[in-house]
Amino acid sequence: MQKRFLIISLFFMAILFSACSTKQGEILLAKYEKGNVTIGEFEKAYAKNSGGFDAAKDDSLEQYQKFLDLYVNFKLKIKDAYERGYDKNYEMTAELDDYKKKVGVSYLLDKELVEPSIKRLYEQRRLELRVSHIMIRPDSTGDEGAKEKATAVLKRVLAGESFDSLANEFSADQYSKPKGGDIYYITAGLVVPEFEDAAYKTEVGKVYPEVVKTRFGYHI
Known about the structure:
By secondary structure, this protein is of the alpha+beta class.
């Protein structure tokens, strides 16, 4: 994977509570057991509890993080209640209603909120990356064969051969292949996590030193 350009993007308020696209609204903000929270869902819930979208725009990152913890705790609490049949119990229903106003720090372990979190999304969404890749799909040789092929191509790239030429010769991505593997700009949350992590770890103008496995195959 080869990163070509790095552009400083707009500040965080351009991401939350702005007139964003449907794709941006679907960006994963938090993930937990059997569920997740997107930016769109978070914005609607937060705005409802803070007096509307206009008021929410002025709040801080810390306030967003605190509400996200509360919101995920509440969703987990509801999930647990339905699984136990407590939704038919008046006392439990009252507790769930009251829970909207509380932060239950003991219910949710830190690891149940996994990347991308608000802090990570904020840090990475500040940067737009222009990325090129060479994708090798598993073929008749299977996953191991695809990995070996990708590793061999990576060695040629690291040895100094033209990335563009090798992408045109080997990449299974028909969209970027004719353009030397160029997939244009990406930001956090818009590509699969494994690809995103490698892209943000790569220095500008450099090639990530390992092949990257995703559900689509292996990437250079």
